[in-house]
Amino acid sequence: MSTYFLTGARIGIRPFESSDIGPRYLAWLNDPDVNRYSGRRFRPSSLLAAERYLASIGNDAEILAVCLLDSGTHIGNIKYGPIDWFNGCAEVEILLGDKSQWGKGYAREAIQLITRHLFITLGLHRIEGKTANPAFAAAVKGLGWSLEGVLRDRFRGEDGYLDYQLYSLLANEFKESRPSERKRRK
Ligand SMILES: CC(C)(COP(=O)(O)OP(=O)(O)OC[C@H]1O[C@@H](n2cnc3c(N)ncnc32)[C@H](O)[C@@H]1OP(=O)(O)O)[C@@H](O)C(=O)NCCC(=O)NCCS
């Protein structure tokens, strides 16, 4: 039986456990490259803070581990929620801490798996994500998400203020397979 909650072509997604919180995970959270677009970048991350964060995730949100199917290696996390059940809406965030795995389409695959779960399994109507990170923007654009707003100077970056870009996808826009995803699988 699969140990994964969601399984794609190269990625497995499973619950993020307190046993995942260790030196490797903390190194991700304290890495300036990983945190370039994170509100956490001015604060050191500790074991205690990471455990408190995990414990603070309520019933209407999930934080999940993104793993490589072939080796089982944990390369980052994806989070959704808290779900606004009345409006059928949730925000999605992703952090791939293992920088050696960037640029291989793993974020796109993980986001697509979560998108399917949120729309097909949970029946949500809309998902959204906002960031100053152009790589996140490129990943979701390739999955058909729309840029629907810009939050001007919302983020203080290394070299000055950056805009947040707000992307969203509606349930009726979801497609199981996108051309960019098929390209990655080859
Ligand atoms: C954002 C992040 C999840 C992307 O992960 P990834 O696995 O490298 O993403 P993918 O390979 O699926 O897609 C990245 C896309 O961004 C593009 N990209 C990468 N750097 C870019 C940049 N500086 N400017 C524009 N596009 C960029 C890639 O070319 C790729 O697009 P393409 O496939 O159309 O060529 C990863 O960099 C990360 O975890 N960063 C730290 C945490 C973070 O900032 N999260 C976003 C906030 S929710």
Strand fraction equals 25-35%
Mean pLDDT across residues = 93
What's the β-strand tally? Answer: 8
Which geometry do the CA atoms define?
A: globular
What does this structure look like?
The protein has 186 residues and is α+β, with helices and mostly antiparallel strands. It has a single domain, classed as 3-Layer(aba) Sandwich (Aminopeptidase). Helix content is 26%, strand content 31%. It has an 8-stranded mixed β-sheet with strand order 1-2-3-4-5-6-8-7, covered by helices on one side. It is globular and about 40 Å long. The model has no long low-confidence stretch (mean pLDDT 93). It binds coenzyme A. The site of coenzyme A has 24 residues, from strand 5, helix 3, strand 6 and helix 4.
How are the SSEs ordered, and which strands pair?
Elements lengths: L5 E2 L3 E5 L7 H7 L17 H10 L5 E7 L5 E7 L8 E8 L9 H16 L4 E6 L2 H8 L4 E12 L2 E11 L8 H7 L1
Parallel strand pairs: 5-6
Antiparallel strand pairs: 1-2, 2-3, 3-4, 4-5, 6-8, 7-8
The structure holds coenzyme A.
Question: Which characteristics define this entry?
Answer:
Aminopeptidase; binds coenzyme A; eight-stranded mixed β-sheet; alpha+beta; 186 residues
